[in-house]
Amino acid sequence: MPRKKETITLSIPPGTKEQLEAIACRFNILWGKDPSISGLIVAIAQHALELGKPFELDSNQINALQQAIKALNDAGRIGEAQTILTLLLDRGNLETPLRQSLLKQLSQPAQAWRILVDEYREKKQPFYILYHDSQDKDREYTVRHAEIKFFDKRFYLLVWCEETADVEDDSQQLPELWHNRCLRLERIRSIVPINGDWRGELDYIEVQLHFLGWMVKAYERKNDDIEDITIRDVRKVVRRVALPFWLIREVLRYEENCVIVSPEAMRDLLAAKLRTLCQLYDIQTNS
Q: Which superkingdom (predicted)?
């Protein structure tokens, strides 16, 4: 038997019928070749259509979701990153350059380097890595140790590699740490397992820091701190440092409330950066 249908009578302003028919046409809701207002009402009642002002993401939400995509990719959670990426493209109302960049990410999803690195670390498996650096150069590294660490709101891949030629001429690099590298996961081009021995850790130097003023109580102990004592108004911390770049950024952030005491080479490295800053801002120094 044909299904019984209910009828309703609508009282609508002039021109509304034509508007409803236009909406039905837009969503291809037809009775034969003509737009079906009845079918449109049924689709709305069954939540098959989304009408009204479209839901869109504002600039702050877009930025937050972009950061979430980066974090998920770094963590190897590629599927979730792609889901958020699709949401951004669908609801973001994006400027053309950003939309094209996101479309490129969607069409060429990043490989789960984090998962592969964790697997090799578990097996103590050395590997060869092809890396595209920030200066648009391809680098090749033979990795004998690797670990993932969190710096400045994102995860990085820290490695001990055999190659040193790319840093030997850099006056900002300490020779004791020439074998250490800090790599962005999304800049990795390929990883291939190789034969050989696995190292137990990165290279480190011990750096003594003195925290002063409000930082005596405010400083939060780090995992690489091996000594932490407070004597009167000075908090003395000894830390194992693999990457001077991140330590200098931290010390500069604390300004006069943090001092590198030793080794001398680490003090000299920071002093050289401070002299450069003084020159850039036309500040006269004694040396």
A: Bacteria
Distance of alpha carbon 213 from alpha carbon 109, whole angstroms: 48
Q: Which amino acid makes up residue 30?
A: L
Task: Give the pLDDT confidence of 150-197 residue by residue, as tens digits.
Answer: 887 778 899 999 999 888 887 677 899 999 999 998 889 899 999 999
**Any idea how long the chain is?**
287
**SS3 category, 236:** strand
Give yes or no: residues 100 and 134 share one domain: no
Please give the Cα distance from 258 to 248 (Å, whole number). Answer: 10
For residues 262 and 74, give the distance between their C-alpha atoms in angstroms, rounded to a whole number. Answer: 34
Residue-wise DSSP of 165-196: TTTTT-TTS-GGGTTEEEE-GGGEEEEEE--S
> Which residue range(s) make up the domain with 216?
205-280
Which of 148, 170, 193 terminates a domain? The answer is 193
Q: Are residues 129 and 146 in the same domain?
A: yes
38 backbone dihedrals φ, ψ, rounded to 5°: -60, -45
pTM, rounded to two decimals = 0.68
